Amino acid sequence: MELWYTEKQTEHFGITAKIRETLVTEKTQFQDLAVIDTIEFGRMLVLDGMVMTTVKDEFVYHEMVTHPALFTHPNPKHVLVVGGGDGGAIREVLKHPEVEKAVLVDIDGKVIEYSRKFLPEIAGMLDDPRVEVRVNDGYMHIHEHKNTYDVVMVDSTEPVGPAVQLFERGFYQAIFEALKEDGIFVAQTDNPWFKADLIRKVQKDVKEIFPVTRLYQANIPTYPSGLWTFTMGSKKYDPLQVDETRIPELDTKYYSPSIHKAAFVLPKFVEELTK
Questions:
Q1: Is 157 part of any known ligand binding site?
Q2: Which CATH superfamily is domain 4-54 in?
Q3: Which of 155, 238, 243, 251 is catalytic?
Q4: C-alpha count within 13 angstroms, C-beta hemisphere, residue 218
């Protein structure tokens, strides 16, 4: 008998993957969690029926939610990741030697626990001495830490359940206050095919708070539509003004100095969402 996992990405559209094995399923305090081993994408973390990451394509998301901001900021010593309990963003942050401390705040400790167990290639740097892991509410952490961080990354699920408040204007204002005077933040902001209104709203809210607001994109095959966006808000530095010839080559699979600028070149229908 064949077993398949299907994510209904909209009411009328989904993706499906053949399953080799179900490694764990649990209803945590905050969400339904599963780790399944698929034939095409390997081990896959699923929260509330949505694919969060897979061992085959995770590098795209984790590289693109981190490196554009970290190379835009000239000296990112203190970095916060809100969500991201799988540890992939932290792994990429630590590739920057100037980072002295990386704080991970995820509300669901079970995500961290099972990522350590079943996704070691993603979560393997959570025990690095530069990392502080907190099982806590990222929304409250932001509000309680003013003028603390050089870069803040919001590595959240889609705006459902506990992540809804992470897409509100008040949260972006609190991030502005949690950043130092030249700080930068970046958040994943879903896809333009199914969530155009969300992107348009986030762009409007962030523009009202941050002097520099940029939308950029990446291709992530297991995310809805495959075309994924990120929104960057900066108090001072513009990612488009970065001298790409001065970006060092990292141990990456997707991000590169050329991609740094290219990711901000948007299809016209996506660019329209920023106006």
A1: yes
A2: Spermidine synthase, tetramerisation domain (2.30.140.10)
A3: 155
A4: 25
What pLDDT was estimated at residue 168? 85
CB 48 within 8 A of CB 237: no
57 is in an annotated binding site: no
Pairing type for strands 78-83 and 149-155 reads parallel
Can you spell out the DSSP letters for 67-96? HHHHHHSS---EEEEEE-TTSHHHHHHTTS
The full set of domain ranges for the chain reads: 4-54, 58-238+249-274
Residue 81 has a pLDDT of 98
- The answer to the question of whether 115 is labelled as a binding residue is no
Mean pLDDT of 203-208: 96
User: What's the pLDDT at 43?
Assistant: 98
What number does CATH give the domain 58-238+249-274?
3.40.50.150
Q: Beta strands 149-155 and 131-135: pairing type? A: unpaired
Work out whether the CA dihedral 4, 5, 10, 14 comes out positive or negative.
Answer: negative
The reply to whether 155 belongs to the active site is yes
Angstrom distance (rounded) from CA 39 to CA 158: 25
31 annotated to bind ligand: yes
137 assigned ligand-binding residue:
yes
Closest by alpha carbon to 98, among 151, 61, 141, 146?
Answer: 151
Task: Name the residue among 189, 273, 275 with its Cα closest to residue 224.
Answer: 189
Q: For 212, what's the count of Cα atoms within 13 Å in the CB-facing half-sphere?
A: 17
